Structures are given as C-alpha cells and as structure tokens.
Amino acid sequence: LKSRWPEGKRFQKLGQNLFLVSGVETKAAEVPPTPSPQSSTPTRPREQAERLLAAARQSGDRGKEASALTDLGVTILNEGDARQALTFLEEALTLARQLGDRARESDVLGNLGMAALAVNQLPRARQIFEQELNYARATQNHLAEKITLERLAITTGRMGDHPGALALFERALPLARLV
C-alpha cells in the first residue's frame, strides 16, 4: 500500500484484501477518450463481464468462470434485471461449490441473496443470508458478518418482523464499531 500511495497518511485494514488509505490528494479527474465504434474494447460493464465470461469458458478455468458469472450477475442486478441475475448467480454458486471454494461461495451467496431480495423471494433471501452469516462467523470476517446481519435485518423487516429486524441491526452495530 505504501509503495502505491507513498503520500498516504493513514492505512486502515477494513477486511480481507480491503483497506482504507487516507491523506492522499486527488488529482483532477481525467476523462478517458471515447472509444471509436470500431473499437473491440467493451465500454459497458455488462459487455466487459460477458467478455470475461467467454474468455474464462474458452480457457477452461472454472474458478475464473465462477467469478465472471458472479460479476455478470451483479452487473445485471445493478441494471435492474434481478430475475436474469439470479440465473447467472445460481450458476456461479454451483461452480463455486463444485470447486470447494468457500470464499468464492460466500461472495456469490451475498449477491444471490440480494437478487432474491430484489425479486421478493424473502424466505429464500433469508436462508441464503443465513448461510453467508455462518461462513462469515466461521472465518471471523467481522465486516462480512456486519454486512450480512444488515441484509438479514432488511429481509426480516420486509417479511414483517420489525422487532426481529431491529434485533439484527442491534447485533450488527458492535461489529460496525469494530470494523
């Protein structure tokens, strides 16, 4: 981190592979040139995710394929098509489980839960978030545990259990202070 941002004043670890660097002056944003219509470089996140998925499948790298499916699912979810996102995220989850990659599985679960929540599959979203919570606790990832408790609280509230939602938010608060 210090070699990348030598002018940084403070470096704080927020989670696994996630850091906050403060004291870095920002430069005026440079606007990248607009690619020509003939350019083969994807300009939209969805095109980029589709390209990465195709490359992963062509190379036969199942781990990269699972990651690319997750990225594509998240991108499509952000575009507002949660039903289609579910399809890609379910495929990514199947691959992550086949690979025995618990970290990748946890990442997919969080996104799959958000997609299920977006299509109002509340019991399914709750079950998915509970799986993710178990993984976060098993790995002592306090940031992931806090985020998952918040997601569970939102789901619980949408299911009509407002006291239960409040209890989950209250469980997340000490973790928020910790991280």
Q: What does this protein look like?
A:
The chain is mainly alpha-helical. Helix content is 66%, strand content 6%. It has seven helices and two strands; from the N terminus they run E-E-H-H-H-H-H-H-H. It has helices spanning 45-59, 62-79, 82-99, 102-118, 122-138, 142-158, 162-178; strands spanning 10-15, 18-22. A two-stranded antiparallel sheet has the order 1-2. Helix 3 runs antiparallel to helix 4, helix 5 (122-138) packs antiparallel against helix 6 (142-158) and helix 6 (142-158) packs antiparallel against helix 7 (162-178). It is globular, with a radius of gyration of 19 Å. Mean pLDDT is 87; it is low at 28-39.
Low-confidence stretches: 28-39
Number of strands: 2
Radius of gyration, whole Å: 19 Å
Estimate what percentage of residues fall within beta strands: 5-15%
